[in-house]
């Protein structure tokens, strides 16, 4: 277990986290914006032994407030709790209508963008450089054995198969994930070009949610190169800069380094039309009470027979190799 203190002193909030998670980044950002004392505790993803003793759902992020004794998980309820318990530097609007609008944005984005971006980000890693998975999930297992080059290659198919079955990466085309996400992001990009923020003309937790959950798409060429989404990524980059967020997570740098060495990337989604027509409707008319998740249970037998699904994703996903074109995201 690795513990990192945010300010070096006594921490009011303990944040149990996966360092690379975009949902965890959302809560880190909120804690920093609200200027709360907190410390981060890294968790082993597959064992979760650091959080087994908590009564709440054992998902990430998870916080324990040492002042109130409250323990809870799920990024949006955490932010709402922080705003209600520590109202300084509020992230949810004071106006009730705008407050509910921001809340619905958060739940909707958690249940759609966050899940789809995670799915396609992992898909991109598996297609291009699956050995990164061992560095993410097993950096300290067996004394760091699986972080070594040869062992990373051995661990990659096992981790890749487990994740593929858990999140249905091999069914991205059948589930219309690229299309649904494109359909959602295009009107959001247009709204931000017009209004600057999602709710009430000011920065809120809804904007933190959008900017954080977009992060995995920065390694997915179909989106980061999309001509009608350039303003959206520029908006994200501007917020990162203004709020002192990490410019690139380590996995982003590792993917970029692999592409620069090979001069190739998996970029062209073969079944999408050249004109980028959108076939799927945007989710989101009905109000939500809680965010959804997309985790499917696995068993040993599923893992044993799941290797073909991983290999299909790795080599026959329908996302074609192309010559690598470096993408420079410029803040707007």
Strand content is 5-15%
Order of helices and strands, N to C? EEHEEEHHHHHHHHHHEHHE
Q: Which segments are poorly predicted (pLDDT under 50) over 5 or more consecutive residues? A: 1-5, 274-282
Radius of gyration: 20 Å
Kindly state the number of beta strands.
Answer: 7
Secondary structure: helix percent: 40-55%
How far is it from the N-terminal to the C-terminal residue, by CA? 39 Å
- Please state the structural category: alpha+beta
SS element count, helices: 13
The pLDDT mean sits at: 86
Largest sheet features: 5 strands, mixed
Query: Which descriptor suits the 3D outline?
Result: globular
Tally the structural domains.
2
Structure description:
By secondary structure, the protein is an alpha+beta fold. The protein has 2 domains: 2-91, 3-Layer(aba) Sandwich (Glutaredoxin); 111-323, no CATH class. Helices cover 46% and strands 10% of the residues. The chain is built from 13 helices and 7 strands. The chain has helices at residues 22-33, 75-85, 96-111, 113-128, 132-137, 149-167, 177-195, 205-213, 221-224, 230-242, 250-262, 300-305, 307-315, and strands at 2-5, 13-17, 38-42, 62-65, 71-73, 264-269, 319-323. It has a 5-stranded mixed sheet, with helices on one face. It has a two-stranded antiparallel sheet with strand order 6-7. Residues 1-5 and 274-282 have low confidence and may be disordered.
Quick structural overview:
The protein is α+β, with helices and mostly antiparallel strands and 332 residues long.
